[in-house]
Amino acid sequence: MPRSRPWIAYRDLSHALGDIIHLHVLGQHIVVLGSAQAIYDYLEKRSANTSDRVQSPMVELSGASLNIAFMPYGQWWRRHRRSFWQYFHREAAEGYKTTQQSAAHIFLQELCERPSDLREVIRLNFTAVIMKIGYDIAVQSKDDAYLKIAKDALEGPVEGMVPGRFLVDFLPFLRHIPPWFPFAASQRLWVKWQAAGDRLKNTPFKEVKAKLASGETTQSIVANSLERLSKMGMSSPEEEEIVKNVGAMAFEAGTDTVLSTMLSVFSGMSLHPEVLAKAHAELDEVVGPHRLPDFSDKDSLVYVNAVIKEAMRWHLVLPLGVPHATVADDEFRGYFIPAGTMVIPNTWACMHDPEVYEDPDVFRPERFIRNGKLDRTVQDPMAFIFGYGRRICPGRYFAEAAVFITVACALHVFDITVPLGEDGVPIEVKQGHTDGLISYPEDVRCTIKPRSATAEALIRSHATAARQALNG
Ligand code: HEM
């Protein structure tokens, strides 16, 4: 098992051996699908048999048992997915756009004030949105306790849920070694991760329950779900568990994926001034200097949409998706695939296929545009990066809207350039992506400044109203 950037090693293996590779690692069958066709044929068309997940002890040990993404295919998963979907399907996601827009306006002001804190400002922005819609809890500053709870809870799933990273995946008895044992560093990590997962699941949930018990009016996914259960006389510890998990899942699956996407956009912009100049020109023409972009501008902002597609293609948030697994013995293109085989889609390889995208490592939004419109004949990264079949990301409409409004607003008002040292000389940025289930651009240092005095005034004039709208 390649430990670093496995998506590149798998791509190279696919070139040598074909687009279906079989690995057998300590008793676990693993199939890596290396082309768009193989992924479509197996994970989309044969989704009824390829929507399971291999159950690793790491799900529980990394504090991720609450997350639908790691649940086995079956009734428990289905009940969670149904419950989650009713709040995030296409029309439901429309209902969050006002909140997303307010959060984007606050984001601009935060970034204006702390431009060197890009990662933390983005995290604050998306945590605030999820806390608002999930629990009706206001997260307003970088010192908010919920920001730490969310950040701590993500460490386990991001670092622990990488197939093969921990030996316990293959030697399950290792989980029983007590954390105080010498050399039990992993075991100590697991205790920390599980406690962090429990805090994420229980702390905001208890706050909502207390509000409801005291008769306070509160509107959120968790509050509405609890009230509905109560009205229908269906409250039970099991139903409440699902509500808890749905709230926490929006967090766990939704914050760092969007964070990584945003970092990729900023990184692409700082390294490609010619791209930012074109985005600025389009925003000046469509939106003009006296307002901020909104969702009604989306179709007219062709170049900005292409920038987002290119950022998502260039840097894959989940380069190997989330591995699926087969439910029953199967046959695919003449190969026997036993039940319980882990099926890894090499989404990164599809997005970096030179036959489909010329010079795939180059950041070039123009590849998605023809005659001034988005070119529908070019393979759309959105059909890949959110996964496949019955497991396709149920937060995709919400995620797309969040990324669009935040990127459009940020590009409208900021200049984003390479980082400068204290002597004013540009610092060379290390281009690369981290390992882990979620991958991040490695070095996102850049210089962020308002484009003009008018842009700065625009940022400040919108922030107060946005704070009022978001947090009351
Ligand atoms: C740009 C941002 C995002 C990307 C790239 C992304 C990508 C993915 C991918 C690749 C999967 C696995 C699909 C598969 O198994 O084939 C997934 C699953 C999931 N995502 Fe997202 N996601 C994003 C944002 C979000 C957001 C904002 C939410 C919630 C509000 C969310 C909720 C989920 C959930 C609950 C699952 C588990 C689905 C299941 O296993 O049935 N995601 N996502």
UniProtKB/TrEMBL annotation:
Protein name: Cytochrome P450
An annotated Gene Ontology molecular function: iron ion binding
GO cellular component, one term: membrane
Pathway given in the UniProt record: Secondary metabolite biosynthesis
Protein keywords: Heme, Iron, Membrane, Metal-binding, Monooxygenase, Oxidoreductase, Transmembrane, Transmembrane helix
Record bears the keyword Ribosomal protein: no
Residue ranges of the TM segments: none
Residues that, per the record, bind heme: 393
Main location: membrane
Keyword Protein biosynthesis: no
Membrane topology reported for the UniProt record: Single-pass membrane protein
Needed cofactors: heme
